[in-house]
Amino acid sequence: MGSIFIISIFIFLKLLNFDNDLPLYFYSILKFEHFLIDWSLRLDLFVSGLIIFITFFATIFTIYLISIYKENKLDLKIIKNSSLSIFGILTLVSSNNLIQLFVGWQIIIMSSYFLINHSKKQMDSNDKNLVFLYNRLSDLGIFLCLFFLYSYTNSVNFDVIFESNYFETNKKLILFDLEISNFELILFILFLSFLLRCRQFFKQGSKYYFLKNKHSTFALLFSVVFLPAGIYFLLRFLPLIQFSYNFFNIITLLGLIITIIFTLLFCISRDLKSLAFYVASSQFGIIIFLIGLKAYNGALFYLLTSTLSLTMLFLCFAIIMIKLNGEHQINRMGSLLIKTPSTFLFTLISSLSLIGFPFFSGFYSKKLIFSLILPFNEIFIFFLIIIYVCYIFLLSYTLFKNIFIVFLCQNNCNIHLYNKIDEKMFLTKTILFILAIFLIFSGWFFNNLFFGSNSEYLWNLALNNNEDFSIQYEYQTHNWFTKLINIICISSLLLSIFNYVVIPKMGNYVRIKRNKLFKKYSSYLALKS
Known about the structure:
Layout: H1 2-16, E1 26-32, E2 37-42, H2 45-69, H3 76-93, H4 98-117, H5 125-153, H6 158-163, E3 172-175, E4 178-181, H7 182-198, H8 215-235, H9 246-267, H10 272-292, H11 296-323, H12 341-354, H13 361-373, H14 378-407, H15 415-420, H16 426-445, H17 447-450, H18 453-462, H19 479-506, H20 510-513, H21 516-528
Antiparallel strand pairs: 1-2, 3-4
Helix pairs in contact: 1-2, 2-3, 2-8, 3-4, 3-8, 5-7, 7-8, 8-10, 8-11, 9-10, 9-14, 10-11, 11-12, 11-13, 11-16, 12-14, 12-16, 13-16, 14-19
C-alpha cells in the first residue's frame, strides 16, 4: 500500500508538470482488437489525486489495524478483507469504461459484506429483508444508470462518452416544472443509488449498523472506500452535465439537507461511535454542497483537510474504546487525561483542525470556501454565513463538550479497566504523530495547489470540464470573517468549559447547590450528557 502511495505521488507530479491542457495517463491492462475490447487504467490528474488520498489513509489504517489486532488472529481477517475493499475502490476510481466501474463497485460491495460478516451478531428478520431490498434496489439503480449511459452514447469507454455530442441536443424531461435532461436524471439516480447503499450503515437493527461493529472497521470503510466513491460518482461524469443548472441546484440542496440532519444528530449523540460518524457524514454533506456550487477546488481541498481530521478523530476514539473493553457510552467515561495524555492531545488537535481554528489545515480550506461564495447574491451569502456560523458553533461546542466529559470530568469508568489503562503503543502513537504533523502543516503546504484562479482552472481541466467559469471568483481575504469564526470557536470552548468543568466544581458549595436555578440548570446538563 505504501508503494502504491509513492507511485501515485510520482504520477500526480508528472501529470501536474505536463504542458498540455488535459493531462491524461493511460496504462493498458487488456486489449483485444478482434473483440473490440480495450481496457486500461485512467490515471488522469483527478484520479491520481484520489489514489494518493485513498492509499495514504489506507496505509494509515492498515498499520493501525495490524498494531491493534496483531495478537488476535480472528481480527486479522479484518485486515485481509480491508485489502479487498481498497482494491475495489482503486479499481473503481481508475476505471476507463463503464464495465470496469461496475466491477470495481461490486468488489467494494462484496468486500464490505466480508468485513461485516466476520461478526456473529444477527439482525432481526424484518430488518434483514428490508436491508436486502434496499441493497438490491441500489445495485439495480447503478446498473440501469450505467446501461442507459451506454445506450445513449453507444460506447462504454469514458473518452467516447465525454466527447459525444449527444448531450448538446439531448431531449428535456419536465419533472415538477423543471426541465431535466436524460443525463441529469441518470446521474442523479446514480448518486441516489449510492446513498441508498450507505443507508444500511445507519439502519438500526441492520448487521451493517455501525454501533454493532468495530469502530475501526467502519472508519476504514467510510474514510477510504465510501467517501471517495461518493465523490467519484458525482465528479466523474461532469462533462455530460456541464451546461446544466438544475442538477447542481438539486445537489446543493441535497448537500445542505444532509449537513443539517447529521449536525442535529451529532449534537444529541451520547456515544463516541455515533458522534464520529455523524460528524463525518455532516462533512460529506458540506463536500456535496460545494460540488453543487461548482467550487471543485474548494470541495477537493476540504475533502483532504476534513478527512485528515476525521481519521485522527476515528483513531483516537477507537483507542479509548479498546482501552475500555469496547465501551462507547460517553457518560461511562471520565478522567482519562491522567491515563491517556497523548490521546487527549491528538483528539484536541484533530478537533481544532476540524472546526477551522488558525492555523491548522482546516483553517485554510474554510478560508478558501468563504472566498468561493463571495461572488454569489448577497441574500444567499447572508443565508450561508448564518448556517455556517450555527454549524461551527454546534460542532465546536459538541466536540469540546465530549472531550471534557471523556478526559477531564468525574471518572465514571469501570474501575478495574481504568486501573489497567496504559499508553504503551509506540506504533499507534507514531501514526497519530504523523497525522498531527499533516494536520498542522498540510493546509499551508497545499494551499497554492487549491487556492487562486490558476488552481480553479487546473481542477476544472482535471475533471475534464472545459466550460468557461460560470462564476469568476475573486479570492479576497476578509479578516472580519476569520475573526468571527475565531470568536465562535472560543465562545463555544468557554461555554463547554463553564458547563462541564466549572459547574461540577460549583456544585460542591452548599449555597450554590441549594439554588433552584442552579439545580435546574445542572440537572439539564446531566440529562444532556
